[in-house]
From TrEMBL:
Pfam family, one: Ribosomal_L27
Keywords from the named record: Ribonucleoprotein, Ribosomal protein
NCBIfam families assigned to the protein according to its UniProt record, in alphabetical order: L27
Source organism of this protein record: Candidatus Daviesbacteria bacterium RIFCSPLOWO2_02_FULL_36_8
InterPro entries, per database record: Ribosomal_bL27
Record bears the keyword Ribonucleoprotein: yes
Domain of life assignment: Bacteria
GO terms (BP aspect): translation
UniProt name for this protein: Large ribosomal subunit protein bL27
Family the entry assigns: Belongs to the bacterial ribosomal protein bL27 family.
Signal peptide: none
Length: 81
């Protein structure tokens, strides 16, 4: 029996591609209608006035304006004014 595997392919050399999550436009930043504000997994931030949430929990703007982050009933809410 061999004590080591042959010089072929390795088993531990795999890694997943990063998903580029996070805040894309910060508070006070200007957005146009349809711009992505936050990419997230699950509801870390909730949509507020002038924003909507996609199927993958992405928050995007529905109107043009400035981004505003608030805390409302201990939830983080993103709005566009």
């Amino acid at each position: 029996m061999a004590h080591k595997t042959g010089g072929g392919s390795t088993r531990k050399n795999r890694d997943s591609v990063s998903k580029r999550l996070g805040v894309k436009v910060f508070g006070g930043g200007k957005v146009q209608s349809g711009n992505i504000i936050i990419r997230q997994k699950g509801n870390k931030f909730y949509p507020g006035v002038g924003t909507m949430q996609g199927n993958d929990y992405t928050i995007f703007s529905v109107i043009s304006g400035k981004v505003e982050f608030k805390k409302k009933l201990s939830k983080k809410v993103v709005s566009v004014i």
